[in-house]
Amino acid sequence: MKDTLHQHALKALAEDNYAVAAKFWLDGYALPHNLEELHELFYHIDNLNKASIDPNLCAILGLIALDYNEIFESNREIALEKCLDWAIGGLKIDPHHYHCCRNAGSALYWLEDWDGALHYYERSCQLRSSPVLEVRIFRIMNRHNAYPDFSQLRPSVDSQSAMELYNAGVEIDYVLRQYAGMSEVENLRLTELKIELYTQAYQLFRTVVFTEQTNSLNYDPHTFAMCCNNLARELNFKEAYQDAVTIVNEGIAQSKFMVILLNRMYIYMCAGMPKNAIMDGEELLQEYVEEMDVITIISTIDGICLSHSDMGQYKEMLYWADQGLEYYQSVNPSDPILQDEEIVRCVTNFYISKSKAASMLGLDVDNSADSEQADSLLENMPDNPSLMISRGESFLRDKQWEKALECYNQAVHFGLEKGMARSVQVALYNRGYVLEVHMKDSESALKSFEQSIGHGNTDFWCYYWAVHSAYHLTENEKTVHYGTLAISMLPEQQEITDDIAAELYEHIGTSLIDIGHYTEAVKNLQISLELCYNRIAEDNLKIARANAKEPGFFRKFFG
């Protein structure tokens, strides 16, 4: 444990071997987490340093000031100035003391004295390789540059300090977030660099943690877990789900905390493991709800709800959708947090999930309560797209099509105005559904579905209804295009029945006949009939086969 390194440092301190004590506490990041113990240690070292100033003691005091200033000074700025005093005092005795030099740079960095921080950070990098400081130097030097030359950002990756490599990955992540508009080439390079840093840190941590080499400076189970969390998240983005699951589980085995559980839940959802995702979501709400903010609670409930949907558990899905809406409606309507895009996305999902679950369960739902709640909230937030969508859902269930369309149009307007992409997608999809299914206006419906897709909606059902509308309009190319997209998503759609899939193949096959692509038409119509018998598909298959044979006959004799 870290306590072993701490005990080694205490022993060295008692023997007046301050360099060894500093090595364990600073390079091993082994200062005690117990604030009372750290408080006593700080004043003991401070007294030793006052009696006879020593650069190693100054470095220890400086790191405490940087990371735990509350134990001796509540004012952060005063503590940073004190850290700077200790660092400079230590450097007067040993101008090449790495930790004093680095502490001086960090104190000035957080005091926003950029030139001073740059001076000490550059000196520190001359004394010892540090990818963390190399990234910070780049950020300082480009702080006024909106378009830095990212090709100059090439920090070293050969450190043997797991903590240094892990923190360097975090620093690179800051850069990627700060400069989201950088070129795709540099974004990809820096993302790969971040993954490389996390991977090397993970390997160094793992070697020690799994072999219990407690005297190693890289022994740190909790930071190992944080490294696992970050690396697993990156692997999940790359769709390396099994590796992501393995690594995040290794981290949780060493140190379980809210963020890593949230990450694992999301990985399970992406990996198609809804049962595991539900277990994590329920544990989060039972054990960590006091640590969660409104957004985290609502997104966790949404994850549980969607996972039950993936398993076809509509009773549980309805329960969690109601839980999510109940919590959402308990928040003060004037709280600006309700305008957050993630909350809008989740609440929209709750209404959609509730409607879908009720339909699948054959329930006759009383919409009056939902309507009253939505109207009450709309009075305070008339420009909230999520609430407009939910109000539209209420009108839809009451068969008031025109009023539902008005709500969806308003949701699109305000969603575009506020940059809420998901709300725009859902509102356009819902509008298309009303126009196609209830108002039989396929032309307007197709436009609405295409707009939803154009705004980034890649949901199966949006493609399905776009096919439906295009087919009715004899828009053959669009029928084939959207039908192909819908079919490509079938492996991920567990609830799609064979008759729905057969309909897609039949629409594509029939449209291919009209286009004159008979061989492809035959293939699609055959698949349609294999999935579910349909008289139209059977008749059109005969037509497609007849036309597919003729060109072959003439090619045979005339080349």
TrEMBL record:
InterPro entries, A to Z: TPR-like_helical_dom_sf, TPR_rpt, Ycf3/AcsC/BcsC/TPR_MFPF
Keywords: Repeat, TPR repeat
Protein's name according to its UniProt entry: Tetratricopeptide (TPR) repeat protein
